[in-house]
Write a structure and sequence with these properties.
Shape: globular
Largest sheet: 5 strands, mixed
Radius of gyration: 25 Å
Order of helices and strands: EEEHHHHEEHEHHHHHEEEH
Distance between the termini: 23 Å
Structural class: alpha+beta
Oligomer: single chain
Strand content: 5-15%
Number of helices: 11
Number of strands: 9
Length: 340
Amino acid sequence: MPGFRLNYGVAVCLFVALALPAYPQLESSDRPLAILDGEPITDADLDIEPKLLDLRQQAYQARLEGLDKLITQRIVEKEAAKRGVTGRELLRKEVDDKIADPTHEEIEEFYRKQKSRINKPLEEIRQQIGVFLRNQRLTEARNEFVEGLKKDSEIRLLLSPPRVPVSVGDSPRRGPADTPVTIVEFSDFQCPYCRRVQPTLISILEKYPDKVSLVYKDLPLRSIHPEAQKAAEAARCSGEQGNFWEYHDALFEIRRITKDDFTKIASDLELDTLEFVACLDSGKHKPTVDADFDQAMQIGAQSTPVFYINGIQLKGAQSIEAFIQIIEAELSNATSTGGE
């Protein structure tokens, strides 16, 4: 079975809301938590669903990591028992003893690449770098060895991730509307990590042309990205002329967006610039962008980018493997339950 660990330690653009609106209940629960003068108080009355969702996600991740650790341990012990050795002895013989120490050249190459961050002479930390590189190799080799052992075991993961109901509405979509997997992206055109993940998203759509679609929603982090709101509105205005995704892609190609870029992109795309400028100046699409923002706050999405893959949250500029892991599981579930 492929490893099912997800990496949540990835870069995101972060916004901390100072005044949040009331949050609707994500999972209905009418069970009273208290009674005040004969009136019940339920989860829905507490307005803490984003916090609860985050806790559920943390609990899920802790269980997932615990499962991975325990399954790995048991698989290693099972193989070790077959060979009449301990698990530690098995790993030492099959992995640890086969790892070569890093060469002087490899240590120096690592130092050259990281010199601006290290700020110490090479000779002072040469040994530390050597230990780090060897441990890195050891971890990779052990993971590879264990993955090989897992292929001989039948493993079914029954732990279900928490899901968030996300309203798609008429938001822009790439791909067919009836795909078994829908990725909803909350993003900010000025967020560097949102820009970084775009090639990954394109690769996913190319890999699953009839299985996965992408829905875009705006989450402009106005307090740190001053042009993000208007950039979002500009993309919506371009959508009126059938060029939302072309405009979207052009915005993400710009490292530092300015107001002048909005009309320039429209001109480059050969849009009716007078119509575009009139739309943008009118603030016509501000309510749409604000509605996306409010929805993000309601479901606890306060950083960008954040994705909901059939409701399963994935934060940050994740690797394509992290997306594929969830997508494959969702496609497998759809097949097993009779879906397309």
